[in-house]
Amino acid sequence: MAISAVLGGVLVLSACGGDDKPKGGGDATAKSQADVDAAAAKDASKARITITPKDGATNVGLNDSATVAVSDGTLTQVELKTSAGAAVTGKIAADGKSWKPDAALKRSTKYALSATAKDEAGREAHENASFTTVSPENSFVGSFIPEDGQTVGVGMPVSITFNKPIKDKKAVQAAINVTSTSGQEIVGHWFGEQRLDFRPEEYWKANSTVTLKLALEGVQGAPGVQGVQNRTATFKIGRSQVSTVDAKSKKMVVTRDGAVFKTIPISAGSPENPTYNGQMVISEKFKETRMNGATVGFTDDDGKGEYDIKDVPHAMRLSNSGTFIHGNYWGPDSVFGSANTSHGCVGLNDTQGANDPNQPAAWFFDNSLIGDVVTVVNSPDKTIKPDNGLNGWNLSWADWKAGAAA
To answer: Of 219, 272, 231, whose CA–CA distance to 103 is shortest?
Structure first.
């Protein structure tokens, strides 16, 4: 019985939530814990760190989505690493109030971000978050021409090609802005679901500067597919050069800044294979290139190309379907200015090797820019389609504007 009484006393003393409140326990214990918490809070740093995106976020953008900001303090250290441990460089702003990475993040990658800040009293605050960036399957990008810093001709549109079909064209177009120092109105036109071109009503003003701003980060291009680009690019419009090829007279008149600059004899497409009519923009230049008829549908009975010239000199592309203006060394001098003999291209007299600067083709090549306009008239063929190359100038301004996202 004595042992039972002792054990019973022990059990009573160590039980929780009993009716009897021992001295120094209960409210007194809670009060002392509250005092400890209050003291700790009083001594805590006033700095407040905000990490974007939130911890656990998925489908995070690649450009401006990962940032750190602090109030009532300054950042002292920020670390961003992939799940594999690879460090991502970044910079704390001069005022110590924010941080961002130096370059775009990688897709389908998990990142961990940790940040430290101090308040005026030198007390530290810490914050951590992890997130996963958007996957290729859930994102889209747009490649564009001309390139940043390039000087181009007055006919060069801003042409953007997206790597996935765009369903919400209005949202995507609204996130793209094209402006010019000329003050010209610039409108976008969709060619299908993956190409968006911008141009003014008339050719760009010579010597103006055009700026393209892509703010596609987070924009929903299609259900479950978002943009991952924030980019600005500028390009310069050079002198105004528009060349007119008359397939009937077999001459090309080169106009520079409104005045006739040079007249060159040419040989256009033969009656069986006439050259397209219309305004065509030079999109590529090659000092020499191979031209195989099989690649554009000109084949013989054996399925081989009707022609295969491996060193065509001074070639400049006018369409995606194979129309070029180029040098011709295999035809006799007599055809230029007198006969149309090609499979649809515009030929200028030249020599093999593309090394004679005195040849008409060499002169035209050296004096042409990507974006210059070559207009073909008086050919028995139809007008080239506006999406066959960079040739949207063949649409009226009303039809061009009608192709903008509503």
So the answer is: 231
Return the exposure string of 255-293: e unless at least 16 CB atoms fall within 10 Å of the residue's CB, then b.
beeeeeeeebbbbbbeeebbbbbbbbbbbeebebbebbb
DSSP secondary structure of 166-202? -S-HHHHHHTEEEEETT---EEEEESTTSEEEEEESS
Beta pairing partners, 243: 254, 374
Predicted confidence (pLDDT) per residue in 316-367, tens digit: 999 999 999 999 999 999 999 999 999 899 999 999 999 999 999 999 999 9
Burial (Cβ within 10 Å: 0-12, 13-18, ≥19) of residue 296? middle
In angstroms, the CA 230 to CA 64 distance is 8
**Cα–chain-centroid distance for residue 89?**
23
Give pLDDT tens digits for 47-79.
999 999 999 999 999 988 899 999 999 999 999
- Pairing relationship of beta strands 346-349 and 324-328 according to DSSP bridges: parallel
pTM: 0.80
**SS3 labels along 318-382:** CCCCCCEEEEECCCCHHHCCCCCCECCCEEEECCCCCCCCCCHHHHHHHCCCCCCEEEEECCCCC
The DSSP secondary-structure symbol of 147 reads P
- Spatial CA neighbour of 112 closest among 74, 48, 57, 47: 57
